[in-house]
Amino acid sequence: MVTETAGLATIRANAIETLASSQLGIATRAQLLAAGLTDVAAYRRVRRGVWQRLLPGIFALFSGEPTSRQRQLAAMLYAGANAQLTGVSALRNYGLRYLPGDDRIFVLVPHNTRRKSVGFVHVRRTLELDERARPNADSLMTCAPVRALVDACRELTEFRAVRAITAEAIQRRFVSLSALDAEVRRAGRSRTSLIRRALAEVIAGTRSAPESELRAVLRSSRILPPLVWNAPLWSDDGVRLPTPDGWLEAAGIAVEVDSREYHLSPEDWQRTLQRHNDLGRYGVLVLHFTPSEIRNNPGAVRRAVEQAYLARKTTAAKAHVIGGAPS
To answer: In this structure, is residue 150 part of a structural domain?
Structure first.
C-alpha cells in the first residue's frame, strides 16, 4: 500500500512538473485536478508560499514575481479558449517602444462569455473578435497590430500617449495608414476621440509624436501661414532636396525636430549636417528644435519661427523650391 501511494505521488509530481515546464509555470485548477492534485493540496501549497493564486482558478507554481509573459498566459487561461490578447500588452510583444507604463492586460472575449475583469486582467466583450489574430511566440492568440493599437488607445486618457503610440506604429510600419483608418471606422464613436485626433495628425503629414506636437504649437500662431509636413522638395532646376519635417514655402524656412534617438552616432550627426547644408545651398533657412524644447517651452519655439518668418518675408529671401500643399 505504501509503495502504491508513493508511486501515485511520483506520477502526480511528474505530471505537475511537465505541466509547469510546458506552461511557463502557470496552471489552471482543472489542469491540476487532472494531474491528480486535490484542491486541499493545492491551497496548502499556496498557504505555505510555495505556489501563488494569481487569478480565480489560475495558479503560479512558483513563489517569485511572475514575468510579463507569465501574467499574459495567466490572463489568457483565465479568459478562456476563444480569448485574444490586445491593447498595450500586445503592442509591447510586437516591439513598440513608446508605450505607457500600463501593467493591465486586456483580453477580448466573445460577447456571450461570462468572464469578468479581475486583478490585472481587464476583460472586454466584443461582437467582433479580430479575424487577423495570430498566435504569438507563447501560442497566445494575439490581435493584429492595428486592432491592438486602436484597442489600446480606447483605454488611454492622455492624448500625448495616444499620439506617441500612433506615430510610432505608422513611422515604423507596424500598421498602414489605410488599415488604421479602416479600424478606427470599424470601432465607431465609442471611446475613439483621441485616436481620431492622432489619425488626423498623421494624415496631415506628421510622422512622429514630436512632429505632431510641433505642428500643434505652430498652428496656434496668428502670424504663420500653414506649414507643409514631410513634403518632397525640388529645386527650380529639378534637383531633389532633403525632405524637412515642416516647410514654410512663403519664406523658404524648414523646421526640423532633432531627437537624440536619431543622433546616437557620428554618422547620424554627419547626415543631419549634410541635410542642413544641402538645403542651405538653395537658400533654405533650417530651424532645429528638440522634443524637450517643443514640449517644455512651446511659446519660445513658436516665437522663434514667427521671427524668422517675418524677417525672411520682409527681405523677400526665400529658396527656389517646390513643396506640397499646406495642411
So the answer is: yes
CA distances (Å), 20 to each of 30, 51, 55, 136, 232, in order?
Answer: 14, 11, 16, 19, 56
Residue 99, in any domain of the structure: yes
300 is a domain residue: yes
Say how far apart CA 19 and CA 252 lie, in whole Å.
67
In a domain, 146, yes or no: yes
Residuewise pLDDT in 10s, the chain (327 residues): 444 455 556 767 888 888 888 999 999 999 999 998 999 999 999 999 999 999 999 999 999 999 999 999 999 999 998 999 999 999 999 999 989 988 899 999 999 998 999 999 999 999 999 999 999 999 999 999 999 999 999 999 999 999 999 989 998 999 998 999 999 999 999 999 999 999 988 887 777 888 889 999 999 999 999 998 887 888 877 888 888 889 998 899 999 998 655 444 456 566 777 888 888 888 899 999 998 899 999 999 999 999 999 998 877 556 666 655 454
Write down which residue in 203, 238, 255 finishes a domain.
203
Entry pTM: 0.74
Contact 78, 57 (CB under 8 A): yes
